[in-house]
Amino acid sequence: GGAHGEIASSVLLNHCAQAPREARSNPARLAAWLAKADAEVREAISRRTEQAGAATLAAAWFPSQSTAYVVHVGDCRAYQLKPASDGHSIHRLTVDQTYASLAQDPPPHANPDDPARMVGAGAVGTPPVVKVQIRERDLLLLCSDGVHKFIADEQIARIVSRGLTGRKPLDKICDALVRAARTNGSQDDASALLVMRYPWLLSRWIYGCAVVAILLLSLLAGAQIGFAETRS
Fold it and tell me: Does the predicted model carry a pTM greater than 0.90?
């Protein structure tokens, strides 16, 4: 929101990515770390313009394979989707921090459904942190209001279930969510990110393949370096 939203969002995401490892399993420290981003966003935008800018956020940290800590500011949302007999059940993990939900009067030219909490506008408050247990094949969906305001929760679950049944990769399912929001009239930023916890054996197999690939690349790199040194 406001000036240079692309700067606000990139600075905020970079700040989240640098959260100390010891904070990733501590809700109070996670909330405090996210609150510190407010000054960073303001400073980054002030170098470009005197106008204010801000960003909303839904983010998740994974201190273990089966646990996630979800933090949000504003009206970005986080959902958990679980396999069910008829597709996937969907559970909203966050509550939109709007003027209406916080029982606050909106400022002039604002609507009750506008976000009352934003990073970069001096209105972060204390970001809520939700601890979530993630079972195998469970998914987390993080999305902006350009998605969730235009797709009902049940439709989100159907799109995700249909994509997984068709063996589509997660990024293609995210594309389908954004397209559905656009079809339903969304003209706002529409962002969606899906995370799935794979079965333990599959995770071990992928990890093992990655290790083998790294070793092969290392051997090839060593051979190339040796060859270059021999030629020189």
Answer: no
